[in-house]
Amino acid sequence: MRYLFLILTFLSAVYFFTVLNFYDNGWQYVQPFLIVSLLVYYNIDNQWLYYSFAFLAGLFVDSFTGVFGLHAIIFLIIIFIIRSLQLTILTSKNILAIIILTILAFLLFWLLFYLANFLFSWEMYTFQQSNLMPMFKMFLINIATVIFFHLLYFNLYAKKHERQSF
Amino acid sequence: MLRQNLKVFLLFLMIIALLILFKNGQIFDLGVVFRSWLAPQGTINSLTNRPDNIEEEYKNLLAENNRLKTLAEENQQLKELLEFKKEREYSLVVANILSRDPANRNILIIDAGKEQNVEVGQAVVVNNGIIVGKIIDVGIDSSKVRLLSDNFSKLAIKTGEEQKVSGLLTGALGLTMNLSYVPQDHDIKKNDLVVTADLDVDIPAGLVVGKVEDIEFSQEDLFKEASISPMVDYNTLSIVAVIDSL
Fold first, then answer.
1. Mean pLDDT of chain A
2. Within a domain: residue B8?
3. What is the chain A residue with the closest CA to B23?
4. Which domain does B49 fall in, by range?
5. Is the pLDDT higher at A75 or at A156?
6. Is residue A62 helix, strand or coil?
7. CB contact under 8 A, A84 and B5
8. Do B131 and B219 sit in the same domain of this protein?
9. Is B63 contained in some domain?
10. A69 touches B at CB < 8 Å
11. How far apart, in whole angstroms, are the C-alpha atoms of residue A44 and residue B104?
């Protein structure tokens, strides 16, 4: 069941990624794969699963971009950092921790891409002033989506079937 | 747990690094391995590598093609000369043009001379009996031919509708020929065929010279004049035949 859920999640991310990339008015900055990678991370304890999921998600996005492996590396770094934070500072999986970690994840996402652009001139996303507002809007939408789906999943499924602090 | 997390993270990073290296062909090219599995290396090489001697082959074929073209042209000329010989029952000496006189481009040097019974004054023809010049000098195995377009060339001709109009053909600056001494009362028209007259003992009558181009005359002059265009390009001659006996 868990694996079926993972596959469906991945496929829905593929669908949204493909659809949203048709739009050019900021919707391309929605990151369905990072959203689902975070959701998978929050709701699955097996580290092999969520790392593999982030890895595959990153590779899928990379197959459409010019720098092969960059998304995969960044997704893994994000998962690694938030996992490390959960093991040290934010040890609880309550909603506040989820919000902080999600915000941090997307901040890291843009920061790492900005660094890649700044250091190696890998221009995956154009960091111009005109793009900053759509990026920020979609940044909020991304965070809201993660929190919404996490709450949805938690309330409809995990609360009844799994023991989890909330 | 932290260490375990770090280990898993590093493991996936290594996998990505390997994938990137594989993809860029820096460790080994997966594409090459895959292709060579599908098709033997010999087949791939024969399809992807250009043959080593292609340029040499091309040059050889080009040379052969040119040689064959020349041979075909030569063959055609010889056939026409043979037909001409059969038709008129002349005795012909076929000769190659060796060179042109460096001082006068309208003097040809051919590889037939006294040994082939060539004599001064004989007619030199091409194709189906088109006269192009006369022998002016004979060596043992070579001769000099003065083309009709040479300034010093003179030839008695006939033209007009029924080839009854006589005149004198002279060369004009090595480029064309002029027809002169055509009486005013004799009618000649543009494109009238010009043929040799029967005044010269060495030159048979009726050999084609060219066609009438422009006719000039005025009431004050005694004779008409015309320019004659040759039937063949004198610059591209390669094989000629000398009519050595009528």
1. 84
2. no
3. A68
4. 31-89
5. A75
6. helix
7. yes
8. yes
9. yes
10. yes
11. 103
pLDDT of residue A78: 93
- Over residues A99-121, the pLDDT tens digits come to 999 999 999 999 998 888 888 87
Tens digit of each residue's pLDDT (9 = 90 or more) over B179-189: 888 887 778 88
Backbone angles phi, psi at B183, to 5 degrees: -55, 145
B9/A68 Cβ within 8 A: no
- Whether B17 is covered by a domain: the verdict is no
Banded model confidence at residue B36, pLDDT cuts 50, 70, 90? low
Q: 3-state DSSP: chain A helix, strand, coil percent, rounded to 5?
A: 75, 0, 25
How far apart are the C-alpha atoms of A54 and A44, rounded to whole Å?
12
Are residues B48 and B97 both part of a single domain? no
Closest by CA to A61, choosing from A73, A51, A77, is A73
Give ipTM to 2 decimals: 0.80
**One domain for residues B179 and B76:** no
Which residues make beta-bridge pairs with B194? B210
Q: Amino acid identity, residue A37? A: S
At which residue do the structure tokens 């010049």 appear?
B133
